[in-house]
Amino acid sequence: MTANSTHLLIAGATLADGGRADLYLADGVLADPTSAPEGVERFDADGLLALPGLVDLHTHLREPGREDAETVDSGTAAAARGGFTCVHAMANTDPVTDTAEAAEYVAGLGERTGHCEVRVVGAVTKRLAGEELAELGLMAASGAGVRVFSDDGRCVNDPLLMRRALSYVKAFDGVIAQHSQDPRLAGPGACCHESEWSGLLGLPGWPSQAESVVVARDVQLAELTDSRVHVCHVSTAESVDVIRWAKKRGIKVTAEVTPHHLLLDTPLVAGYDTTFKVNPPLRTSEHLEAVREALADGTIDAVGTDHAPHARQDKDHPFDVALPGMLGLEQALGVVVEVMVNSGRMDWATLVERMSSAPARIGGVAGQGRPLLTGEPANLVLVDPSARAVVDAAASASRARNNPYHGRDLPDPVVATFWRGRITHRR
Ligand code: DOR
Ligand code: ZN
Fold it and tell me: For the whole prediction, is pTM greater than 0.85?
């Protein structure tokens, strides 16, 4: 199979619902497989699952500004390896994506990579400073067509600004994706889940309530404005309870959980390995159980990786000083398969909803998260449900090496990824 193959018959794939199908990729779309000409290139997918391409709502690509940690090209290459056909590039770059020009610049970098679709997330406030709204309307109307706005890395803490942002984005069906972290309850030094572990290790902790109080405020502001709020990286049982309550009330709230908050827990920070420093921090087992259950029952709508590459010199510091964040794109599917599917918590069709359809809907991305039917865009990933491998951080397409799964035996499901009918990754 050639990289530029525009006509390809994927034969005998199993779909997420258990059915079998031939998929004919022709000029970027799925065509009627019976129309495939004799002698067309074939890919034998016997024993493989064909799923719609994965969509990530939360990706730090670091360009412009920190190309030593990641570029749009290297980050999207990692995305393709992870089975993603679309990522959302977070706004906390340097300069910040807070103008139409900046948004178009990042969108342009995305168009040039060819690894996957890059949707641009715009900042909520200028320079992420939390003081005045960024050019939300101009970013939405720009060539980048921004629909998701976030100060991620920081919380939009001022309730009046948050209210205004929610009101503003309603006009173009935008959504405010909030990094829920009360900056007073979880100050700048806080770097560990507040628990017996933070005490034992002597690390400044932040309580789970520093997240859930912001979630509680924001869902009420979403109700007040009748607008859409999205809760980034839900990590606590209390946040899950609030979101469940809000959804029951009909509030327009959606939520994501990261692969690391599904799998990794607080005791991992006991070695002071800064790879495990992340915001929100790794939580304890009762919180992990709560977010797993919420992802299974749909209280949490989506998986968002929060892929956060960092250069070595920003991680090689004492734990409380190192930058927070960990890689996620390449192992995301493997982690979700391990924690949710192999454990019997979730079936493959629900996984597709959480990792493809729901994030595409939340981000307003037409042409992604679509069922694998004739006429739909040929964005898909072929998966070997039983393959496993020991993760090697050095084998990553990312420029960064802060991979929290290094040395772990995990499912290694991605066999090939196709975006707009072209192969973007093949094992
Ligand atoms: O740990 C984190 N790192 N959490 C965030 O919210 C931001 C991210 C980053 O940009 O490095
Ligand atoms: Zn965040």
Answer: yes
